[in-house]
User: Fold this.
Amino acid sequence: MIYPCFAPAIAESPNHEICMEALRTTEAYQAEFIKLRHDVKIYFDRSSASRNYAIGAESVGANNIVIHIPSNVQPIATSLASLLAHELFHAKHRCVNNAFGSALDKILEEGLAVYHQYNLLSWSHEEPDAYISGIIAASDEQGAAFYRELYPHLNDHLNSQLDHDLFYDRSHGTPLGYIVGFYLADRAIKANPQFLAQAGSMSFDEWKKTIVLPVPRFTSATMPRHRAF
Ligand SMILES: [Zn+2]
Assistant:
């Protein structure tokens, strides 16, 4: 089933059969979301040809989710569905909290959004795509070290420079905020599996009371280097 508020954008979209299939796959997420608000719109944008040849998504304001599918890329329904799961989690959580205070707020929200993205692929019996596998592998291999590096900055106010460094700087591969976010989300969900279902309707303060953040042990060899966060 497709909720009526999503239908108009789909009808106007190219590849609407694939978009419809993606929406059917995210039905459970939409149902959760619809309980909270009815005025979200999903747009499929095919106008950008060179967005790194990758499909991307963003939430614009509280009401709009835009899925960018470069005109030179043929979309795959499960990839679209996994992006929708990510953005619907953001949209749902924005009904409870619509502004990030600290770096940790956004790190956790992105980590949980990526976890939902990963989970949707698992439910659909799909292998994680390259983007998700990259985050999982990096989080397994380097998550603790990156977390230790960020730890002194977790409560810093999320200004635009810090936001850029954590979530948009791709000079070293996947931005650090996603890797550390997935690392923390994965640990929080393993410690308390119900947190996955509850997280979308909890505030940032409730997250911080629910999740036990690991306290990294610093030795002289692991003292955070002075990266510009
Ligand atoms: Zn996100």
Summary: The two ends are 44 Å apart (CA to CA). The longest strand covers residues 41-45.
